Amino acid sequence: MNGSFWKSVSMPRFTPLSESIEVDVLIVGGGNTGIVSAYLLKQAGLRVALIERDRCCQVNTGNTTAHLTYVTDLSLQKLVSSHGRDHAQAVWDAGQAAINQIEGIVSTEQIACEFTRIPSYIHASILGDKDESKRVDMSLW
Ligand SMILES: Cc1cc2nc3c(=O)[nH]c(=O)nc-3n(C[C@H](O)[C@H](O)[C@H](O)COP(=O)(O)OP(=O)(O)OC[C@H]3O[C@@H](n4cnc5c(N)ncnc54)[C@H](O)[C@@H]3O)c2cc1C
Predict the structure, then answer these.
(1) pLDDT digits (tens, 9 = 90+) for 6-45
(2) pTM of whole model > 0.70?
(3) Domain assignment of residue 59, given as a range
(4) Does residue 138 form part of some domain?
(5) From start to end of 29-86, where are the E strands?
(6) Does residue 23 sit in the same domain as residue 82?
(7) How many CB atoms are located within 10 Å of the residue 97 CB?
(8) How far is the CA of 11 from the centre of ligand 1 (A)?
(9) Does a structural domain hold residue 106?
(10) Which distant-in-sequence residues (6+ apart) come within 8 Å of 51 by Cβ?
(11) Candidate from 60, 99, 113, 118 with most ligand 1 atoms within 8 A of CB, to mutate
């Protein structure tokens, strides 16, 4: 498939609010972040409303491949040198915890999304920077 899967499926439509409502938390934005936050807050027993100015899951979320990884754009070495070892570790642990949480939600809610753990590879571009392959080794990354 060439193009985003999420933009090829029909997301549910909701009617605009027609009256004032009272909630504990109002979430602005129906992308990944807003929807997961709303879900978790509801699980915690809060009254939640989520508002979206257009359609849910169409902006950044609409362009993801749904490939989850906690390998950060910034190399671990650079994270450590700029933020210290503890903070770098916290970034790594948070990514791992997030994916574990998603896996837990998929299981609890029995979401048929074929969630699967697979090996991940970083490879050098076949174009451009010839030195890139030397930097691809995770120990140097
Ligand atoms: C091309 C691309 C590919 C990506 N691929 C991956 C990937 O493979 N794996 C991965 O993990 N991540 C990927 N990402 C990153 C991931 O998509 C984003 O981090 C994530 O979707 C961000 O979600 P979000 O809910 O914060 O933002 P968004 O999805 O942008 O949602 C924000 C929502 O808020 C709404 N909004 C904004 N202002 C208002 C307002 N004032 N009132 C009401 N609504 C408002 C917007 O309409 C939008 O729907 C990718 C990002 C891009 C752009």
Answers:
(1) 888 888 888 899 999 999 999 999 999 999 999 999 999 9
(2) yes
(3) 1-64
(4) no
(5) 48-51
(6) no
(7) 11
(8) 15
(9) yes
(10) 17, 26, 27, 28, 29, 30
(11) 60
Same structural domain for residues 50 and 107? no
Whose alpha carbon is nearest atom 13 of ligand 1? 64
Pocket-forming residues, ligand 1, beta carbon under 6 Å: 28-34, 51-54, 58-61, 63-65, 67-68
Q: How far is the CA of 130 from the centre of ligand 1 (A)?
A: 33
Give per-residue pLDDT as tens, 72-89: 888 888 899 999 999 999
Q: How many domains does the chain have?
A: 2
Residue 18 carries which side chain, given as an amino acid letter?
S
Do 22 and 74 fall within a single domain?
A: no
Residues 4 and 59 reside in one and the same domain: yes
**60: CA distance to ligand 1 center in Å?**
3
Ligand 1 centre to CA of 33 (Å) is 7
The torsion region of residue 121 among left (phi > 0), alpha (psi -120 to 50) and beta comes to beta
User: Atom 35, ligand 1: which residue's CA is nearest?
Assistant: 29
